[in-house]
Each structure stands twice: as structure tokens, then as C-alpha cells.
């Protein structure tokens, strides 16, 4: 009798285990289906230029996102909007991103203001900005307030340094032309700083205001008439979209020029001195990450560049008939041959 009871107990235990395992196998897929899908963040990318102009920059930004764990198509979707150099399109493009209910808008130059007019609630990250405080985009660099934060390229001391580099490259420098766009955020402040630096160095300044690429030839003709010795280009998003054309014009008119971004020197201009634009875009990804993790733009200080690079194009120097002094070449972060 005892053996029969033992056998019955074993049979019942085995049957219970079998039922438990079977139920587990049935419930597991249901539990997996019930798990919420990983969230895909929606990011708006609003730029005043064209996709081709910004190709290296968007790749640098994507690289910054990947370093932080965001992979396009997996856990983040980027909605690209480009004004193709037509600033009047920016307000409509910004409104379109708002209607798409993106989580963050990344903007540069005049696109920042368009985004701000379109929304006061969606966080806006300034990928490239000139003078965000002076232009009324943020309350202060340390405490932006509102829904905007990001990176500023405005460093007052840089304007004087560019003129000093030009003096080293052109020892007879006396008359400097300045090409700038007064309608672009930050450009007026940058021009004023250049003006102050020129006065301190005893240089005569020629102001040339340009609001459209159609005005480039007229501006360079004016430089030639006034016998400018060299040129400073105060970069903005409009100019950046035509940086190859501008670099070519400086060589064609035999004008030693210094620019804000290395892309101009790489395109054939003589020199550039300023922050690394690609590094700035990678840094913009860190702001997006912090905001997606719950930080408020109002509490994230605006970052200013701390590292600057001097790039010199020796081929351009040769075409311009210049011999670059060894002391200047020694200071260069990169020499293009």
C-alpha cells in the first residue's frame, strides 16, 4: 500500500510540474507582447542652408548622438528641414516641426529665432549661435531661462586675434575690408568687436554689408577700388553655404583673407581661426541627451568654445604671392599644403 501511495505522489508531482512548465511557456509570449516598446524620440533639425552644405555637420551631430546611445532609426528619429538659403521659409518649417510634436528642435543661426517664434514649450538647442544674449534669445549664458539653450560661438577676444594673424601674414597691412551681413544674429556685435580691435592695432577698416550671394561680386569690386590689403569675413549661415565661392573670390582678387571656420581654408582661403565647427555639433548632441533625460533648457548654461584652431593654406599663400613667416606657421594647428 505504501509503495502505491508513493507512486501516486510521484505521478501527481510530475504532473504538477508539467502543468506549471506548460503554463509558463504559454504565458511567456503573452508577457513579452505586453512589454511596452522602447520609446523612439523625435528630433527636429532646422537649418537655414541646404542638406549638402550641412552634410559634414549632420554627420558630426549623429556621431555625438551615437556616442550617447542614440541610433537613428532605432531609438531616435530626426525630422530634417532645410530652408535652402531662403530665410523666409524658416517660420513655416519651424511650424511644421511643432505640428509633428518633436521632443527637441536643433537649430542654427536665423533658424533659432524662427523656432522660438513657433514654440515656447518645445526645447530648442542652439547648434550654432552668434550672440544669444545680445540677440534676446536667452536671459544669460549661465541661466538661459525659457526653452532655449545650447552653444554660442561668440568670443570677443577672437576678433582681435584674427587681425593679429593677418598682420603677421601681411606685414604691410594698413587697410582691412570686413565682409558681413547685418541682418544675421550676432554679426553686428562681431563687426563692432572687429572695429574696436582694428582701431587698437592702427588699422583702417572698410565695412562691406552683404545680404545676398548676388552682392559678393559688387563687394569684392569695392574692396579692389579702395585698395584693401586684406579681408576679414564674419561668417554666418548664408556665407557658409557659399564658402567655396568666397574662398575662390579672395584668391581671384588677390586678397589675403581670414575666416571664422576651417571649411573656408580647406576650400582655398588663406587662413581661418575659430572654434572647430564639427566639434561644436558633436557637443550639441550632449544638450539633446540631457533634455531627453529630463533636464530643462532654462537650467542648462549656454556653452562657449574653449578651444580654437588656426588653419593655414600654403597653396593659397603661394597663389597670393605671400611667404608665410615661420612664427605664424609654428602657431598653426594645421597647415594645408
Characterise this structure:
- The chain is of the alpha/beta class and 337 residues long.
- It folds into two domains: 41-154 and 278-299, Response regulator (Rossmann fold); 156-274 and 308-336, Rossmann fold, CATH 3.40.50.
- The protein is built from 13 helices and twelve strands.
- It has helices at residues 2-34, 55-67, 90-99, 110-118, 156-169, 187-200, 216-225, 237-240, 243-252, 262-266, 277-292, 314-319, 326-331, and strands spanning 41-47, 76-82, 104-108, 124-128, 148-150, 175-180, 204-209, 230-233, 257-259, 271-274, 309-313, 334-336.
- The strands form two sheets. It has a seven-stranded mixed sheet with strand order 7-6-8-9-10-11-12, with helices on both faces. A five-stranded parallel sheet has the order 2-1-3-4-5, sandwiched between helices.
- Strand 1 (41-47), helix 2 and strand 2 (76-82) form a beta-alpha-beta unit.
- Helix 5 crosses helix 6.
- The chain is elongated, with a radius of gyration of 28 Å.
- It starts with a helix and ends with a strand.
Amino acid at each position: 500500500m505504501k509503495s502505491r501511495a508513493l507512486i501516486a505522489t510521484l505521478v501527481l508531482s510530475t504532473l504538477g510540474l508539467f502543468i506549471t512548465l506548460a503554463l509558463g511557456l504559454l504565458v511567456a509570449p503573452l508577457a513579452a507582447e505586453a512589454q511596452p516598446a522602447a520609446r523612439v524620440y523625435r528630433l527636429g533639425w532646422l537649418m537655414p542652408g541646404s542638406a549638402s552644405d550641412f552634410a559634414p555637420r549632420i554627420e558630426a551631430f549623429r556621431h555625438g548622438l551615437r556616442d550617447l546611445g542614440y541610433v537613428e532609426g532605432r531609438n531616435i528619429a530626426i525630422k530634417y528641414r532645410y530652408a535652402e538659403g531662403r530665410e523666409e521659409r524658416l517660420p513655416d518649417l519651424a511650424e511644421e516641426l511643432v505640428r509633428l510634436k518633436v521632443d527637441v528642435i536643433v537649430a542654427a543661426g536665423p533658424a533659432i529665432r524662427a523656432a522660438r517664434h513657433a514654440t515656447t514649450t518645445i526645447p530648442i538647442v542652439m547648434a550654432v549661435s552668434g550672440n544669444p544674449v545680445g540677440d534676446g534669445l536667452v536671459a544669460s549664458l549661465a541661466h538661459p531661462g525659457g526653452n532655449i539653450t545650447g552653444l554660442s560661438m561668440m568670443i570677443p577676444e577672437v576678433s582681435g586675434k584674427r587681425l593679429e594673424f593677418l598682420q603677421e601674414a601681411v606685414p604691410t597691412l594698413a587697410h582691412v575690408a570686413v565682409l558681413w551681413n547685418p541682418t544675421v544674429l550676432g554679426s553686428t556685435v562681431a563687426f563692432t568687436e572687429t572695429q574696436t580691435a582694428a582701431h587698437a592695432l592702427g588699422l583702417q577698416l572698410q565695412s562691406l554689408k552683404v545680404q545676398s550671394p548676388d552682392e559678393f561680386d559688387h563687394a569684392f569690386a569695392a574692396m579692389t577700388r579702395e585698395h584693401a590689403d586684406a579681408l576679414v569675413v564674419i561668417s554666418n549661415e548664408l556665407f557658409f553655404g557659399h564658402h567655396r565661392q568666397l574662398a575662390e573670390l579672395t584668391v581671384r582678387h588677390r586678397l589675403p583673407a581670414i575666416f571664422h571656420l576651417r571649411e573656408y581654408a580647406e576650400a582655398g582661403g588663406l587662413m581661418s581661426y575659430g572654434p572647430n565647427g564639427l566639434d561644436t555639433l558633436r557637443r550639441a548632441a550632449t544638450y539633446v541627451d540631457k533634455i531627453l533625460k529630463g533636464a530643462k533648457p532654462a537650467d542648462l548654461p549656454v556653452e562657449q568654445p574653449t578651444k580654437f584652431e588656426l588653419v593655414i593654406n600654403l597653396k593659397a599663400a603661394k597663389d597670393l604671392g605671400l611667404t608665410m613667416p615661420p612664427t605664424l606657421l609654428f602657431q598653426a594647428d594645421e597647415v594645408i599644403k
